[in-house]
Every structure is written in structure tokens, then in C-alpha cells.
Amino acid sequence: MKFLFSFLVFVLAVSAQNDICLEKIEFGNSCSTAEPSIRFHFDNSTGLCMAFGYKGCGGNKNNFDTDGTCSALCKPTSINWCPVKSEPLKKTDGTVLCKKDDDCKTNGYCKRRLAGGGVCCNKVESDYVPVCGKGRTALIVKDDGNKNMLIGKNCDSNFCPKQSKCTMGNYFATCCKKL
Q: How far apart are CA 146 and CA 83, in angstroms?
């Protein structure tokens, strides 16, 4: 009985934790006790953790210090879904399963599972390699010891540091270094 009660409490805690990931982005408000910073929120419409400019105080719990923390708490554990929750790409034979990129159409790639095999998905690389203009490149930041490109839902998220400029792509926005 004690085990059952503990299990129920655990399930409710996990459910409550997941609910914060569904909260809409809130930028908070300016205050004298904290500095504005770049934070991360889970965007349910794309299934991605995205950067935003946090004003320092307030907001909601869908507000994480790092992309890694956001991903660990909010990203779906299914590894078989396509980026930005897009539908799998149908091959010429009408199926979506694949073993390698060549199995998919030219505008797709094979999103593989750890156990082997996968599904064909549309390419979204163009957003991960933004067109920043002559002599400019995407801004890469260190997050949890990893180097990552900052992405946001759109430029209104005000997430790009001062030494960069926001560029909107097909699915999301990125930061390009200023010259």
C-alpha cells in the first residue's frame, strides 16, 4: 500500500512537471533585483526548446536557465518524430519507414532510431544554417558545456545578444553575428 501511494505521488508530480511545459511564453518584467538574461522555454507547437529574452522577474515556470534543462524536462521522449512536429515525409511508394537518407525523397532525410530504422522527415537544415549575409555567421553560444546555436520562435522573442541580429527562417529564428 505504501509503495502504491508513493508511486501515485510520483506520477502526479511528473504530470504536474509536464504541465509547466505547456505554459505559453512569458517574458517576465523588469525589476531591480535581477538582470535581464537569455532563458529557454518549451514551445509546444514545434516541440522545441527555444531561447527568449527574460526581463528578470516574474513570468511562469516554462522558463529554464539552459536549453539542456528545458529539453530534459519538456521534450517528448519519442525519438521517432520529425522536427517541429511535422508529419513524416511519404516516399514514392507511400510508406514513411527508412534505413538511410537515400531511402527518402531529395527534400527529406531518415530520422533514425537507436534500435535501427527510422522515418523520413522533411529537411529543416536551412533554419540551422541561416543566411546571415556576406561575412556573417550564426552566433554559437556555450550552454551546459555544449556549443549551440540560439533559436527562438520568432524575432519578437528578443533573444539575440547585443553583438548579434535576429534572422527569421522557415520554422524559427536564429541570431547572426554583427560585422
A: 20
